[in-house]
Specification:
single chain; 153 residues; alpha/beta; globular; five-stranded parallel β-sheet; 6 helices; 56% helix
């Protein structure tokens, strides 16, 4: 009887922890499709009273730009923050949710895996257009993810 009570208490604590600490993770690439994904994620973060983390994973390809990796990273991140500020003004200004924006270098699947190791996630929202530039990473993400995944067309 005591063991059963302890088990139920443990389950209850896990549910409370997840409802209080878990977030919605939205992967964006600043396309129109990712704007729709972000709108969907915002609505559901509000419904679940969850934190929203917006993640912009990107790759460093020096040959494409002819810059050093450090200069390229700085340039990409500055552009990403400017682009997110526009989304923030349009979509998040009047929302009553907590959120943060992160830029991270790497494949989508790797960045998501690292994020979910450190932070509990209720579900992840991603737009289908991200697949165009990162097909292998996108397919790996869909195949290997262990959290609910919503793909927005």
């Amino acid at each position: 009887m005591i063991l059963n009570y302890a088990y139920k208490l443990s389950l209850y604590r896990n549910e409370v922890y997840l409802s209080m600490a878990a977030s919605v993770l939205c992967i964006i690439d600043f396309s129109e499709s990712s704007r729709k994904a972000l709108q969907w994620a915002i609505a559901h973060a509000a419904t679940h009273k969850s934190h929203l983390t917006v993640l912009y994973p990107y790759r460093l390809t020096r040959a494409q730009y002819g810059e050093s990796a450090i200069a390229l990273r700085k340039k990409i991140e500055e552009e990403a923050h400017k682009s997110f500020q526009l989304l923030e003004q349009d979509l998040l200004a009047n929302q009553k949710i907590s959120y943060d924006f992160k830029t991270e270098v790497g494949f989508i699947a790797d960045r998501v895996e690292e994020h979910t190791k450190r932070h509990p996630v209720i579900f992840m929202v991603i737009n289908k257009s991200i697949r165009k530039g990162n097909r292998e990473s996108f397919d790996e993400l869909v195949e290997d993810t262990e959290i609910p995944l919503v793909i927005i067309p």
